[in-house]
Write a structure and sequence with these properties.
globular; about 40% helix; about 0% strand; mainly alpha; Topoisomerase II, domain 5; about 90 residues
């Protein structure tokens, strides 16, 4: 899919952010597991593979992938040196 001209988000980015908003993932709340967010996105909004959704969350949490970090991730989300992110269950 192509990014939108208005904000640069792809549809899967928009769906993940919407699902996280509906789940109540706010800056002042406790962190939730990635698998919970991925399952919610797949079940309700994006009926494709779970790896694509998890990879989107990982990229949105990396400070070097996008211009602005859209997800505040806790844990191992990879490094600029090529280290991969931790498994979804963590």
């Amino acid at each position: 899919a192509l990014p939108d001209v208005r904000d640069g988000l792809k549809p899967v980015h928009r769906r993940v952010l919407y699902a996280m908003n509906v789940l109540g993932n706010d800056w002042n709340k406790a962190y939730k597991k990635s698998a919970r967010v991925v399952g919610d996105v797949i079940g309700k909004y994006h009926p494709h593979g779970d790896y694509a959704v998890y990879d989107t969350i990982v990229r949105m949490a990396q400070p070097f992938s996008l211009r602005y970090m859209l997800v505040d991730g806790q844990g191992n989300f990879g490094s600029i040196d090529g280290d991969s992110a931790a498994a979804m269950r963590y």
